[in-house]
Amino acid sequence: MSDTTETTPGWLAPEELQTTRARMPILYVEAVPVRVDDAGEVTQIGLLLRIGPDGTVSRTLVSGRVLHHERIRDALLRHLEKDLGPVALPRIPASLQPFTVAEYFPTLGITEFHDPRQHAVSLAYIIPVAGDCRPRQDALDLVWFSPQEASSPLVQQEMPGGQGVLLKRALAHVGCLS
């Protein structure tokens, strides 16, 4: 037995993550950042602009893994801060009921969601943000769209792995799509 104490619980070394991804589903959270008016109606949806490992440019939602021994609320806050910056002022709902659950598979066609790296189960949330959003980490930009613009075929085709489908579900959930 080692006397060394793990100081960053929940993190896996790259090799361990690759092995784990090959053997079991990984839990994720996804957040659709929105701006709302005084009546609580969604007026804008924020989408990140990223460059993928293959060099393609795409629009994405805030997303990331839930770490071992991490609460879902904490994972949402961590990923929102990582992608939108420390003063985005997200308002995490008191009830953590996701608006949907998305299952991503490495095999195309099982569901509408695809992730070539893994089988992932993602809890999806609509999160109002009130502060100044400045993308960080690997995000190049954050662009705010009206609900109509966000649901357009042009924006939808820029979203990989089925995230466009997830965005449309979010818009329908808040009454922005018929």
Note down, in words, how this protein is organized.
By secondary structure, this protein is α+β, with helices and mostly antiparallel strands. It has 5 helices and 8 strands; from the N terminus they run H-E-E-E-E-H-E-E-E-E-H-H-H. It has helices at 14-23, 72-84, 147-150, 153-157, 163-173; strands spanning 26-36, 42-51, 57-60, 62-65, 100-105, 113-114, 120-128, 139-145. Strands 1, 2, 3, 4, 5, 6, 7 and 8 form an 8-stranded mixed β-sheet that branches. Strand 1 (26-36) and strand 2 (42-51) form a beta hairpin. The radius of gyration is 17 Å and the shape is globular. It starts with 13 loop residues before the first helix and ends in a 5-residue tail after the last helix.
Gyration radius (Cα, Å) is 17 Å
The percent range for strand residues is 25-35%
Count of helical regions: 5
Q: How would you spell out the order of helices and strands?
A: HEEEEHEEEEHHH
Distance between the terminal alpha carbons, to the nearest Å? 59 Å
Q: Structural class given helices, strands, pairing?
A: alpha+beta
> How many strand elements?
8
Write down the overall geometry: globular
* Average pLDDT, all residues: 90
Question: Major sheet, described briefly?
Answer: 8 strands, mixed
Low-confidence stretches: 1-7
Secondary structure: helix percent: 10-25%
SSE layout and pairing:
Layout: H1 14-23, E1 26-36, E2 42-51, E3 57-60, E4 62-65, H2 72-84, E5 100-105, E6 113-114, E7 120-128, E8 139-145, H3 147-150, H4 153-157, H5 163-173
Parallel strand pairs: 1-7, 5-6
Antiparallel strand pairs: 1-2, 1-4, 2-3, 2-8, 5-7
